[in-house]
């Protein structure tokens, strides 16, 4: 939730008001879906849009059939179709992609579209995978250092009897790694990089 809120606020601070959300979950997904992370990021996006007084009507896009949460190629195909749907039905200046596979699928849809690159939306994804770093995609990612520190602290507390019983849950904040896709006119600056990656 906080990640979805954070990246949406980041795009708003850059001047964007028509910010779409591309999710990996179907709108009818249950709360205990394997894709609940996508649902939570959308809730964060909605909250940030509401807080800024911006409409979300017809700005969220979901697959009719959810991809396997562990199948990267299937996620990319779903995201490509969602990107095509977004481009044909909504005028947006920015998009929050549920994860980096979604961001890459959207970028492929943009490359295949007839939309001049100077009208492409800013894009932010999640997870900071290697492929998005290569393509200069802005991405929110967890701090692995903080995850490790929290895990070590939980182990220490359990070992010393400070906690017992049920599994403990700790939330770790995300940080935005700013790259080219969240900047104005990013496609022109990234043209050489984009062409090198089919």
Key phrases:
8 helices, 198 residues, disordered C terminus, 6-stranded mixed sheet, 6 strands, 45% helix, alpha/beta
Strand order of the largest sheet: 2-1-3-4-5-6
Spell out the helices and strands N to C: HEHEHEHEHEHEHH
Strands, total number: 6
Specify the number of helices.
8
What distance lies between the first and last C-alpha atoms, to the nearest angstrom?
32 Å
Helical percentage: 40-55%
Helix and strand content put the structural class at: alpha/beta
As a whole number of angstroms, the C-alpha radius of gyration is: 18 Å
Query: What is the makeup of the main sheet?
Result: 6 strands, mixed
Give the uncertain stretches in residue-range form: 188-198
What's a concise summary of this model?
By secondary structure, the protein is α/β, with parallel strands linked by helices. The chain has helices at about 1-15, 35-50, 70-90, 100-110, 130-135, 145-160, 185-190, 190-195, and strands at about 20, 60, 95, 120-125, 140, 175. Residues about 190-198 have low confidence and may be disordered.
Mind explaining what this structure looks like?
The protein is of the alpha/beta class and 198 residues long. The chain has eight helices and six strands, in the order H-E-H-E-H-E-H-E-H-E-H-E-H-H. A six-stranded mixed β-sheet has the order 2-1-3-4-5-6. Helix 3 (72-89) packs across helix 4 (100-112). The longest helix has 18 residues, at 72-89. It is elongated and about 60 Å long. The two termini are 32 Å apart. Residues 188-198 have low confidence and may be disordered.
Give the topology, please:
Layout: H1 2-13, E1 19-22, H2 36-51, E2 60-61, H3 72-89, E3 94-97, H4 100-112, E4 122-126, H5 130-134, E5 138-142, H6 144-159, E6 174-177, H7 186-189, H8 191-196
Parallel strand pairs: 1-2, 1-3, 3-4, 4-5
Antiparallel strand pairs: 5-6
Helix pairs in contact: 1-2, 3-4
């Amino acid at each position: 939730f906080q990640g979805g809120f954070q990246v949406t606020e980041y795009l708003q601070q850059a001047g964007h008001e028509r910010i779409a959300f591309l999710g990996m979950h179907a709108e009818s997904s249950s709360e205990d879906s394997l894709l609940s992370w996508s649902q939570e990021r959308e809730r964060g996006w909605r909250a940030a849009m509401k807080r800024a007084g911006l409409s979300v009507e017809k700005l969220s896009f979901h697959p009719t059939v959810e991809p396997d949460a562990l199948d990267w190629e299937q996620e990319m195909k779903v995201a490509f179709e969602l990107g095509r749907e977004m481009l044909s039905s909504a005028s947006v200046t920015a998009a929050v992609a549920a994860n980096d596979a979604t961001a890459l699928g959207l970028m492929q849809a943009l490359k295949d579209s007839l939309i001049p690159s100077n009208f492409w939306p800013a894009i932010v994804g999640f997870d900071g995978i290697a492929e998005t770093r290569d393509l200069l995609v802005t991405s929110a990612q967890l701090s692995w250092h903080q995850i490790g520190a929290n895990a070590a602290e939980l182990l220490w507390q359990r070992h010393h009897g400070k906690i017992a019983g049920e599994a403990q849950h700790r939330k770790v904040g995300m940080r935005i790694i700013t790259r080219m896709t969240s900047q104005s006119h990013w496609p022109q600056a990234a043209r050489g990089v984009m062409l090198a990656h089919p």
